[in-house]
Structure formats: structure tokens, C-alpha cells
Specification:
Elements lengths: L2 H45 L2 H29 L5 H21 L2 H6 L4 H16 L1 H9 L5 H127 L4 H32 L7 E4 H18 L3 E7 L6 E4 L1 H17 L5 E11 L2 E10 L21 H7 L5 H11 L3 E7 L3 E12 L15 E2 L2 E5 L3 H13 L3 E5 L2 H10 L4 E5 L7 H9 L10 E5 L4 H10 L3 E4 L4 H11 L8 E2 L9 H4 L7 H40 L2 H17 L3 H10 L6 H22 L1
Parallel strand pairs: 2-4, 9-10, 9-11, 11-12, 12-13
Antiparallel strand pairs: 1-3, 3-7, 4-5, 5-7, 6-7, 8-14
Helix pairs in contact: 1-7, 2-3, 2-7, 3-5, 3-6, 5-7, 7-8, 7-22, 8-12, 8-22, 9-10, 10-12, 13-19, 13-20, 14-15, 19-20, 19-22, 20-21, 21-22
Length: about 750
């Protein structure tokens, strides 16, 4: 991390801490302000409380009614002969005064003045005076004759009561005024406090905003720095990726270049071993063979690890027969096991009547061969047992492979290092037994790429048990393809074969010769036009994509020639099998269309269907074909076995090996063309090269390589694509070397 990013990170942390404190303070101030507002509202209500106003009003009414009663009584006494109505009016005034006394006894009034000694002293006296006048007014109400003396005494009591009510009114008014003043002062204090809280809240929010603005600037600066760093990292990644792709391409190319002379070395060593040699010379040849084979294994391990590390090999999903795969792997290791004095054993657990699955047999075979190779290498005069089991679980079927040996064993503390790249049990292993320390690392990565697991159990001096299990899909055994005999007789035609790819040219030529046809070969469209102008042909088999002149242009040119060339049947042979390609061929003047790869039956049908009338009398029996040796047809599970068997049946094993050699030689040139196309950004050359590679691979039954070439035609040609092609060619070369060894 750069220094600027470190400073930005620390600044963001500091401002983040300050932001948290400011937020907490702001929240507290907001709660405090809310409390103050609530309290202010309550105090405002208290200031306007009806209890206080009712108390003042009650005292005022009590005083007023006392005065009114006193005046009414004085008026009553002044009358010489008061009437009953006057007495009734006087008693009514008393009743009103009496009711005002009940207000003074009300709980609210008492609660308001409960701490006042003045009220506590005056209120009982007022009550006693009012109640003391009650008998007089009761007598008046009853219509009785009340003496003047009693009435004058009542007037005196009223005067005393007036003095008390005046004191109560004065005290109550003063008390209420004081309470109002206190409440107003308290509200002012609270308002000032609220103002300070609002000011503090405003300052806190302002600081928070400033802090957030600072944080935003820091984040923006850090973002710019991160973006610049990301751009640098992206550039570094692109450079590393380019270097990695260049490394992969280099290793694939070097591996292929090493394998080519190594093939010659091992082949010549095999030829030498077949001759008459002395014991010393035979031992020297054996050393050459074993050393070359060891070198081949090391190269394969390094290239496999590079390919897996680069992630250029997506798992395949093709049908395979697991028991046959195990048997093939054991057959490969038979010779080495015999040299070590080991016995190989095979155990099939519950595999009777089944064994066909959908998965990646090539990867499984690589893992199994690696484990078998290690078991044989580290065991002398012992037993190596391979077992295969199918495990059924809720999530589906899994295949369990086990390789158990009676070799030297592995110490417990060394086991964790085994599955690491370039790691061995100890330093003496590589000196004693050889190897790169990559084998088990490759196995682990392959098994994990198949969503499987791998492990081991071992005891020093007792042997080891390596196992791995992978998920597979159980499928039914495929129905074997039924062979069809070609037509017993065919017209003998003079055929012009136009094909730029050496392998396709060789295969088609040998097929046609086996069918009894006379074949003339042209390597591009221009040569085909020249040959068609020089002599007549009965049939032209035309490839579509060729250098110099393609098949469409060549067909148009031939149709423009005089004589028989204008009507000679021209059949397109191409890996492009779309309706658009078929339409282009028909529009160019072609007579038929056949997609690649083409087998002998299809060629026989083309010859029979497109033979000119004048050539139908030239009958010839097709050449005899030998039996297909399926041993070579099964060199790899992802090959088209029927196609390989057909080729072997047509040209023999030696002929098929020759075709593979021609293909590998031609593929090396195509690989170089791909490299040039990638370097020059020539998409047309790249597509034409991939098309040619697809066609020749399909012709030999190399469906995996053909599919890869076709898929890469839809992508941008880069180093990774070239590496994938090189890796597939390397595996084919490896298979060829294994069969030649």
C-alpha cells in the first residue's frame, strides 16, 4: 500500500471517529432540546392553569357575595315592615354565599394553597362565620319571626367576614401574581437554556458537516489514488498475463519441439534394440530408451502443470468405460512394473455389467497413470493393486480409484508436503528415484478441477494407499456402430482431389485408391483450375478454404473453362456444414456438398452418384481392406474410435501411423501459422488455419482437437488459444510416443 493511501486510511479513520462522537453529541443535544421543549410546554400550561385562575375567581366571588349579602341585610333592616319576598331574597343571597364557601373547600383550591399559613388561618374562620349565620337564615326561610337583635348580630358577623374575605382576596391575588412571575422567570431561563442547546446543536451539526466534507475530500483523494493504483495493478496484471501466456506458449512450443527429436531418439532406440547387438550395446540402448522415457515424463509433468496452472483445460463430458480405462493404464505400466519385479493386480468392486460413465477420461487416466507410476517407482519386488469402485450417494454416483503398494511408505510428517508443487518426501528421493515433485500436485489440481477429492494412507516400510474419487454420470453402454460394406463394384473415374491440408489429402487419396479410383491431387484452387484446363476429369472433389484461390473461386473458374470442365461434377468437401455454405456452393456451380470428415462409404456413394454416363461402364472392384486393429483405435478415450478403426481398416496400422506423423508435422506448421496470425492480428489467417486444423483432425478421428479448433474460431485469437492448441497437439504427440515406445 502506498504512503498516500496509508495517510488517507488513517485520516479516514480519524474523521470517522470524530464523526461518531459528533453524531452521538448531536443525538444527545437533540434529545435534550426535545426534553426542554416538552418541559417549556408543560410550564406554559402551568402558567395558564385553570386551577390557579379558579382559585382567584373563587375568592373574588366569595368576597363579592359577602358584600352583596351584607348590603341586602342592611337594606332588610332598614325596612319597617319587610315582606316575605324581601326575606326570600335575603335568604337567596345567603344560599349563594354558602355555595361560594363550598368552592373554598374544593380539593383543587386546597391543593393550590396547601402550604399557605394565611389561607389555613383565614379559611376556617370564614367557614365558621358563614355557618354561624345559617340558623338565622333557616328561620327566615321557614317564615318564622327573627328578632332584630339576631339580624344585627348577623350583620356584625358579615362585617367580620368581609374583613376576612378582603384579606383572602389580597393574599390570593398576591400569591397568584408571584407564581406567575416565578413561572415567567423559569420559562425565560428555560428559553435561554434552549437557545444554548440549539446553539450547541448547530455547532455540532456544523462540525459534523465540516468533518463529513473533509472525509469526503479524503475519500475522493483516496478513490483517485486507488483508481491510479488499480490502473497500475491492471497494467501489471496485463503484463503478467501476457508474460504468463508467453510462458505457456513458449513451454508448449518448446515441449513440442523437444518431443519431435525425442520421438526420433526413442524410435531409433527401438529399431536398434531389434537388431543384432552385443550385451553392452543392448544395455546402452536400454539406457537411452529409459532415459528418453524419463525425460518425456518430466517434460509431460512440467507442461501439464503449466497448463493446469494457466487454467486452459476445461473438464470434458464424454462417454468412457471406466474398467477399460483402468486396464489401459495398467497395460502402460506393465513393462516398468516388470523391470521393478512388481506384480500388478486389478480389483473391480461391483462393476460387473456396468462401467459406462460421462466424464473426463483423459484427466482420470493422467491421474491414475501418475499414481501407478509412483507406486511402481517406489516398490521393488512387491505388489501394486489397483481397485475401482462405484459409490452411490444422494447427490449422485462417484468413482473411487485406489492404488495400493507394498513399497517404502511415507512418514506422517512428510505427507502434507506431497501435494505441493516441486515437493518430495526428502531431498534424497529425487536423487534416488528421479522426478520433479510435480506429479501429485498435478493430480490434486486435476481431481479438484473435477470436483473430486484425493488422499493417502501410508506406513513407513509397509506401503501406501493413494485414492481419489470424482463425481460421474452413469450412462448406458453405447450401441456399437454397425459396419457397412461398400458397394461391390464402382465405376472407375479420373478424380481431381483439391485439398490444401496434407493429412486430408493423404486420407482422401488412400480412400479413393482403395475404391479403385485414379487420383490427381491439387494443393490449391489455382492448381485445380490449371489441371482442369489441361485435361478432362470425371469428378472433382473440392475443398472450400484454401490459400491462393478458395474452392468457390476455383469452381467458378472451372465452370468458365471450355469443354468438359463446364459440366464436370464438382462436389464440395468442407468442415463448414451450414445451410449458408451449402447455398454458396450451389450458387457457384457445384454439383454436391459433403461435410468433413468423409469416410470411405461416403466417398463410395459420391463416386457412384456423380459418375458421368460414359464412365459407368468402367467397372472396377474396390481394393480389399485389412481387418481393423482396435488396439490402436483406443489410444485415447476421446478419439472417434469408429473413424480410427475405419482408417486402420483402409490403410493399415502402419498407414495410420504415417497419417498421424503427417498430421503432427503439418500441425506444427499450422501452429506456427497461428502464432504469426496472432502476432500480426491477422484474423483471416487465424480462421483459415483453425479451419484447416479442424478438418485434418476430424479426418483422423481427433474429435477433441477438432472441437477445440472450431470453438476457437468464434473467439479472439490470443496466446491462450494458441497454448490450448499446442497443449492438445502435445497430448496427441505423447500418445503417439507411448505407442511407438
Amino acid at each position: 500500500m502506498s504512503e498516500n493511501l496509508v495517510r488517507s486510511r488513517d485520516a479516514v479513520r480519524q474523521t470517522g471517529g470524530a464523526t461518531k462522537y459528533l453524531l452521538a453529541l448531536s443525538v444527545l443535544l437533540m434529545f435534550g432540546l426535545a426534553g426542554l421543549f416538552a418541559y417549556l410546554s408543560n410550564r406554559q400550561n402551568t402558567l395558564q392553569d385553570s386551577i390557579r385562575e379558579d382559585a382567584l375567581w373563587a375568592v373574588y366571588q366569595f368576597d363579592r357575595e359577602t358584600r352583596t349579602l351584607s348590603q341586602s341585610l342592611t337594606h332588610y333592616l332598614a325596612l319597617s315592615r319587610p315582606s316575605p319576598e324581601d326575606a326570600k331574597a335575603l335568604t337567596l343571597r345567603y344560599d349563594i354565599l354558602y355555595s361560594r364557601l363550598s368552592i373554598l373547600d374544593n380539593g383543587k383550591y386546597q391543593s393550590y394553597f396547601e402550604q399557605s399559613e394565611t389561607v389555613d388561618a383565614l379559611r376556617p374562620r370564614a367557614r365558621d362565620l358563614v355557618l354561624g349565620m345559617e340558623p338565622v337564615f333557616n328561620e327566615l326561610t321557614a317564615g318564622g319571626n327573627v328578632s332584630r337583635t339576631a339580624l344585627e348580630a348577623t350583620a356584625g358577623r358579615l362585617r367580620d367576614l368581609l374583613a376576612i374575605t378582603e384579606d383572602l382576596l389580597t393574599f390570593t391575588n398576591a400569591t397568584v401574581s408571584a407564581a406567575r412571575a416565578d413561572a415567567r422567570e423559569e420559562i425565560m431561563r428555560l428559553q435561554k437554556l434552549s437557545a444554548w442547546v440549539v446553539l450547541a446543536l448547530g455547532i455540532s451539526i456544523a462540525l459534523l458537516i465540516l468533518n463529513l466534507m473533509r472525509q469526503l475530500r479524503i475519500v475522493r483523494s483516496a478513490t483517485d489514488e486507488i483508481e491510479a493504483t488499480a490502473n497500475k495493478m491492471a497494467a501489471a496484471y496485463r503484463a503478467a498475463e501476457a508474460g504468463n501466456q508467453a510462458k505457456s506458449q513458449f513451454m508448449a512450443t518448446i515441449g513440442h519441439e523437444i518431443r519431435t527429436p525425442l520421438n526420433a531418439i526413442l524410435g531409433m532406440a527401438e529399431l536398434l534394440s531389434m537388431g543384432r547387438l552385443g550385451e553392452e550395446e543392448r544395455e546402452n540402448v536400454r539406457v537411452i530408451t529409459s532415459s528418453g522415457t524419463a525425460l518425456l515424463e518430466i517434460i509431460n509433468e512440467i507442461l501439464d502443470f503449466a497448463k493446469i496452472e494457466h487454467g486452459d483445460e476445461p473438464p470434458e463430458k464424454i462417454p468412457f468405460h471406466a474398467p477399460e480405462l483402468v486396464r489401459q493404464a495398467m497395460k502402460v505400466m506393465e513393462g516398468r512394473a516388470r523391470e521393478q519385479g512388481n506384480r500388478l493386480e486389478l480389483v473391480m468392486n461391483g462393476m460387473a455389467g456396468r462401467g459406462w460413465y460421462l466424464g473426463d477420461p483423459n484427466r482420470l487416466r493422467r491421474v491414475l497413470l501418475n499414481l501407478l507410476s509412483n507406486a511402481v517407482k517406489f516398490t521393488e519386488g512387491g505388489t501394486v493393486r489397483v481397485s475401482l469402485s462405484e459409490i452411490r450417494r444422494d447427490e449422485g454416483a462417484r468413482l473411487l480409484f485406489e492404488v495400493v503398494d507394498t513399497g517404502i511408505g511415507i512418514a506422517e510428517d512428510a505427507r502434507p508436503r506431497l501435494f505441493h508443487a516441486f515437493s518430495q518426501v526428502d531431498g534424497t528421493i529425487s536423487r534416488r528415484f528421479g522426478g520433479t515433485g510435480l506429479g501429485l500436485a498435478i493430480c490434486k489440481r486435476i481431481v479438484e478441477s473435477l470436483d473430486g477429492t484425493i488422499g493417502l494412507d501410508s506406513e513407513v516400510g509397509e506401503g501406501s494407499r493413494f485414492w481419489f474419487e470424482v463425481p460421474v454420470a452413469v450412462i448406458a453402454a453405447p450401441v456399437p456402430a454397425q459396419t457397412q460394406e461398400h458397394a461391390a463394384t464402382l465405376p472407375r473415374l479420373n478424380v481431381l482431389l483439391v485439398e490444401d491440408n496434407a493429412v486430408n489429402r493423404e486420407v482422401a487419396s488412400q480412400f479413393l485408391q482403395k475404391l479403385g479410383q485414379d487420383v490427381t491431387v491439387a494443393v490449391d484452387g489455382a492448381e485445380a483450375v490449371r489441371l482442369a484446363a489441361e485435361r478432362d476429369f470425371d469428378l472433382v472433389l473440392m475443398d472450400m478454404q484454401m490459400p491462393v484461390m478458395d474452392g468457390i473461386s476455383a469452381t467458378k473458374a472451372i465452370r468458365g473453362l471450355p469443354g468438359k470442365a463446364r459440366t464436370v461434377p464438382i462436389v464440395a468437401m468442407t468442415a463448414n456444414a451450414s445451410d449458408a455454405d451449402r447455398r454458396r456452393c450451389m450458387e457457384a456451380g457445384m454439383s454436391g456438398f459433403q461435410s468433413k470428415p468423409i469416410n470411405m462409404a461416403q466417398l463410395s456413394s459420391i463416386v457412384a452418384n456423380h459418375a458421368p454416363t460414359e464412365a459407368r461402364n468402367r467397372i472396377v472392384a474396390p481394393g480389399k481392406t485389412g481387418p481393423a486393429d482396435t488396439a490402436l483405435a483406443c489410444v485415447r478415450p476421446d478419439h472417434d474410435r469408429d473413424r480410427v478403426a475405419e482408417l486402420i481398416k483402409a490403410v493399415g496400422q502402419d498407414g495410420f501411423r504415417h497419417l498421424v506423423d503427417v498430421f503432427l508435422t503439418d500441425a506444427s506448421a499450422l501452429l506456427a501459422d497461428l502464432g504469426r496470425a496472432m502476432a500480426a492480428g491477422d484474423a483471416e489467417l487465424g480462421d483459415r488455419t483453425l479451419h484447416s486444423l479442424k478438418g485434418s483432425a476430424s479426418n483422423l478421428g481427433f474429435v477433441s482437437l477438432a472441437g477445440l479448433a472450431e470453438s476457437l474460431r468464434k473467439e479472439r485469437l490470443d496466446a491462450a488459444a494458441v497454448s490450448r492448441i499446442a497443449a492438445e497437439l502435445a497430448r496427441l504427440s505423447e500418445t503417439r510416443l507411448v505407442k511407438a515406445a
